[in-house]
Design brief:
single chain, 238 residues, alpha/beta, Rossmann fold, five-stranded parallel sheet, Response regulator receiver domain-containing protein, CheY-like_superfamily, Bact_response_regulator, phosphoprotein, Sig_transdc_resp-reg_receiver
Amino acid sequence: MSHHPQHTGAPAVLTALVVDDSAAARHRISTLLILGGWRVHEAAGMDAALRLAAAVDPDLVVTDMVMRSGRGTSLMRRLRENGSRARFVVTAAARTQQVRALAASAGAVACLAKPVDPRLFVDVMKGLTPAGTTEVPTAPAAEPETSQRAEEMYASALPHRLAAIVAAARAGDAAGVAGTAELLAAVSAQVGHADVAAVSTALGRDARRGVVPQGRLMELVRVCSRAEGRRFADVAPA
């Protein structure tokens, strides 16, 4: 099983498999993992997940609890039967005590509510250790090309994330502002844009209280412009 870390001195790039019927949910998790240095594969259901797992031997599987093709607990048990040594994380729209117990009994190390809070997800990743190792599998020592790829992804997505935040603010959707701002904060922190992360975190905190200050939105546009060396006049709040 060559994908699992070995003590050879050189850090391995860890592999994750993200399983969910929802493309948006998969993208949310995959973005955080990729920016953390993981190699990520996605599957839209149990059958695809089993095929991919056999091919790539993931170190981590993040699966939805309830999918059209079956339950995440069934997927985890099938993977174990097939010899997988991956760590499992479950996401669930209804994170009840019963769901958490079912996830734990199937071998999950964490059960997270959907939509996944990016800050909580990053914290969970920091606390995970692959079986048989003593290293924390978050952002393995980034190679130059990995860092460059993460920065390129960040720069490409930044205008869209800003536009989504501003659109939600204009629509009076404080929850939408909070969720998008928190995701931006998490990915900004991972790629080293601390100023964007700080303002996004503050905006998300305001939005969770039902308030979206115009001044905070303008501040976010300014720090994003500085981060990428360009102006975002087309997404600035009116």
